[in-house]
Design goal:
With about 800 residues, the protein is of the alpha/beta class. It has 34 helices and 22 strands. β20, α26 and β21 form a beta-alpha-beta unit. α7 packs across α34, α12 crosses α15 and α22 packs across α33. Bound molecules: ligand 26W. The site of ligand 26W has 21 residues, from α7.
């Protein structure tokens, strides 16, 4: 058999992807044999399926070659556990990674088909909320590209992030049934399934050697079934795997009812089990404490660890080798139950004692924190854990007992340290998942320099003191393959023509562009590319909203989740100020400018939804005002997602990164915009600080309070009323909103916003930064009047983005945290 397999993987039975004729033959074969449609009557969807099945074959061949090599080398691996992966569409990505886009385009053209139209048929798998999920996807890309042995684990949600429409100015959520026409990329592994247990009770006994043993019995079980998605890297022989778990009912559970003759109850149970992987929770900053969410977290953690341990034992036999052979990265605390679950598997399944099990466990995990917002730090009610995962609660208590011993030793007599460091919050009777993740990990990292500093100084200072060197920084990055090469072919070609293509896998190579900022011919070409991208974006938005933007105007873009801390409201206040200024004919007349805002609000986050409505009301007023509409236009872009980002980011002139300093952990959109030649207007928050250091103070618009100033101002007593009293422009803007100018049908529509700003003390300091923001925006307007200087700065931004590649992040994780090396293939 071996020679046949070898032939399939390496021989001439494969499609020759550099030969148009060979591709065409393969396409027709796949269309007929796999899709089952007559090529003469095939529509774009059939062609999409055909191309993806052809690619899937190649993915499988190369994937096998990778895993054969990995086993051969006994490679140390990293497992990336994440509740979310926002991979974006796959088709163009795989073509680009395999280097076959142009041949495929040609082959399809010969068959009368347009590749771009076919690619549009693919649903965008929205298996994530925002930054954290997209970061996971960028990391998988960087790992595969640089040949690191990485492996992702997550959930195959049947419904991903809701799709958003705007009706009557308001967000409406629609279910994202992304699988309804099948998912050609996945490999279903019916044979790879694990039972995941819930509820039940614990029985403890002494074994034959007199040791205390515990068993978890009378559980309700759900089956986790594996679906694999192959992950390609750019021009890389390594194919990684993203294994997503889907919940199935177990037959054993159904039988109980069957035997009682209660068929309907049995089927009902089946659907209850399957709800576990039904839907992604669309919140990215407030934890709800819902039992179903807890079950989702445990479901994917348990299945992943069972799979990891089984694979380890197949290859290495010996559990003691676990920390040598694997490392597991926890993407935020959502998979933090992995710590007690690993303990359970080692002790209850494999019979290890507590001490050796704990030594192994602590040598395996690392934890990334992605947020400083207190309401986003996960905690679970003890009562709920006791009910859903009684064995894990016991293990957590034992971990806490040992941990608090060490705290007492390190901080003798310090009751406050004990209280703050305990895994149990006594006042609320909840388990603190970040504490659990920290105690169970060998390294903890923040995602930008400021964020890591604040974690160490303000959020977990005692942990930092107790374990010097445990907290480290790894600043986020983005993959230049999707966020430049794929989404901005015009700029990519221009760069490659000028400096070669080394930047595609080493972004620091972009520094070679710096001298070209002084080359007027290059500047002209650079701005011509921007112009084309703005036209493409304008057409795209016209299609989505009916509103046409003028590509000659400054495209001012803020796209990200809608949240008070990200301060879309500050953006709106500026827009209203511009509106007033233009109407009054005040000098200098700003603009023309198109303000584009996009993003989803969590369905239960009323204030965020109200901000969306305000943007739309303001847009309606401005865009219908003949006196203003040629100088200022406002567009709310609906359904912001990876695919829309790919069109939006290359077309931006100005990137809005205006969070309250000390609230945005890193931001990654900020990096994507600058990489595509937008200038940033931003606060000294998250990675903006490092972006400023790289591009230079002259090439970025920084404004507002620093994180330390925000803290001091709050401490001294911040008074939003006074800020407004002292600023006539601000007062007019606020009055206009609260008087119902933008909502004449309902004059009190925005009173909740007024209350948040005044009665509730303007938690995010929107008013405090208003004047500084106006000044920075005035500087933007002035600079935009000087296109040559603008272009020079934009080019320097691109040239100096080398640091912000996810390749750099991944090399840092690999060297400093994971201790893994690229594979040799
Ligand atoms: C359970 C509710 C929930 C869900 C998701 C709380 C918090 C989250 C995430 C941690 C939110 C998130 O996506 N954070 C973002 O992570 C990015 C990648 O590190 C950072 O760039 C963003 O600044 C951060 O907001």
């Amino acid at each position: 058999m071996d020679h046949l397999v070898k032939d399939a993987l390496e021989g001439d039975r494969r499609v020759d992807t550099q030969d148009v004729d060979s591709i065409q033959r393969a396409l027709i074969t796949y269309m007929v044999r796999v899709v089952g449609t007559d090529p003469r009557s095939a529509g774009p969807r059939d062609w999409f399926l055909t191309v993806s099945h052809l690619l899937k074959g190649i993915l499988s061949e190369r994937g096998m070659t990778t895993s054969r090599a990995q086993y051969g080398q006994g490679t140390r691996r990293v497992y990336y556990l994440s509740m979310e992966f926002l991979t974006g569409r796959r088709l163009m990505k795989h073509l680009l990674d395999f280097g076959v886009e142009s041949k495929m385009r040609e082959a399809l053209e010969g068959l009368g088909q347009d590749l771009d139209a076919i690619a549009e048929e693919e649903p965008d798998p929205a298996l994530g909320n925002g930054g954290l999920g997209r970061l996971a996807a960028c990391f998988l890309d960087s790992m595969a590209t640089h040949r690191y042995p990485g492996y992702g684990y997550g959930i195959r949600y049947q419904f991903g992030m809701f799709s958003q429409t705007i009706e009557d100015g308001q967000q409406v959520e629609h279910p994202d049934n992304w699988l309804h026409r099948g998912n050609p990329w996945e490999f279903v592994r019916y044979g790879v399934n694990y039972p995941v247990r819930f509820h039940g009770r614990i029985v403890c006994f002494k074994d034959e050697k007199g040791r205390q043993k515990c068993q978890w019995v009378d559980t309700e079980d759900v089956l986790a079934m594996a679906y694999d998605m192959k992950v390609t890297g750019y021009d890389s022989p390594v194919i990684s795997n993203l294994r997503l778990w889907s919940a199935q009912s177990t037959n054993a559970f159904d039988l109980r009812y069957f035997n009682q003759g209660n068929y309907i109850e049995a089927v009902k149970d089946k659907t209850t089990s399957e709800t576990l992987s039904k839907v992604l929770y669309p919140m990215d900053s407030t934890v709800l404490g819902q039992e179903l969410r807890l079950k989702q977290e445990y479901f994917f953690v348990s299945a992943s660890l069972q799979d990891i341990v089984a694979r380890h034992l197949r290859a290495h036999k010996d559990l003691a080798l676990l920390p040598d052979k694997i490392t597991i990265q926890l993407n935020d605390t959502h998979p933090a139950l992995a710590v007690p679950e690993m303990m359970r598997i080692l002790m209850d399944v494999h019979g290890l004692d507590w001490e050796p099990a704990w030594d192994l466990t602590r040598g395996i995990f690392c934890y990334t924190n992605h947020t400083l917002l207190p309401e986003a730090l996960e905690t679970w009610p003890i009562g709920m854990l006791e009910h859903v995962l009684p064995r894990h609660l016991e293990i957590i208590y034992q971990i806490n007992h040992d941990h608090l011993q060490q705290v007492r030793f390190r901080f003798p007599g310090d009751m406050e340290a004990l209280r703050r460091m305990s895994l149990v919050d006594d006042s609320t009777q909840r388990i603190r998942m970040a504490h659990l993740a920290i105690v169970g990990s060998k390294r903890v990292n923040g995602v930008a320099a400021l964020h890591t500093r604040l974690l160490r100084e303000n959020v977990f200072p005692e942990f930092d003191e107790m374990s010097p060197g445990k907290f480290v920084n790894v600043t986020n990055g983005v993959t230049q393959r999707r966020w430049l090469l794929q989404c901005n072919p015009g700029l990519s070609d221009l760069i490659t023509e000028a400096i070669g293509d080394a930047w595609t896998t080493d972004l620091t190579a972009l520094t070679a562009l710096e001298p070209l900022a002084e080359d007027s011919a290059f500047r002209a070409r650079f701005m011509a590319v921007k112009r084309i991208n703005k036209e493409r974006l304008a057409v795209h938005m016209k299609g989505l909203t009916g509103v046409m933007a003028d590509p000659d105007s400054l495209f001012d873009v803020q796209v990200k989740r809608i949240h008070e801390y990200k301060r879309q409201l500050l953006n709106v206040l500026h827009v209203i100020h511009l509106y007033i200024t233009i109407r009054e004919g005040g000098a200098p007349v700003p603009g023309p400018r198109t303000v584009i805002v996009g993003g989803k609000a969590a369905p239960g986050y009323h204030l965020a939804k109200l901000i969306i409505r305000l943007i739309n009301d303001v847009a309606l007023t401005i865009n219908n005002d003949p006196q203003v509409r040629d100088r200022l236009r406002v567009i709310f872009m609906p359904n912001y997602n990876v695919s829309n980002a790919e069109v939006t980011i290359p077309g931006a002139d100005l990137s809005e990164q205006i969070s309250t300093a000390g609230t945005e952990a890193s931001g990654t959109g900020n990096m994507k915009f600058a990489l595509n030649g937008a200038l940033t207007i931003g606060t000294l928050d998250g990675a903006n600080i490092e972006i400023k250091e790289e591009v230079g103070d002259d090439n970025i618009f920084i404004f507002g309070l620093t994180a330390d100033e925000v803290a001091q101002t709050k401490q001294r007593g911040y008074n939003p009323w006074r800020v407004v009293e002292e600023d006539a422009d601000l007062k007019r803007v606020i009055d206009m909103i609260t008087s119902g100018f933008f909502s004449p049908q309902q004059v009190n529509r925005y009173h909740a916003i007024r209350d948040a700003l005044f009665e509730e003390g303007d938690r995010y300091m929107v008013l405090a930064d208003f004047r500084a923001y106006l000044d920075a925006q005035a500087a933007v307007d002035a600079l935009y009047q000087d296109p040559e200087t603008w272009a020079r700065k934009a080019i320097l931004n691109v040239a100096r983005m080398g640091l912000f590649s996810s390749d750099r992040s991944i090399h840092t994780y690999a060297d400093d945290i994971w201790s893994i090396k690229p594979m040799e293939l």
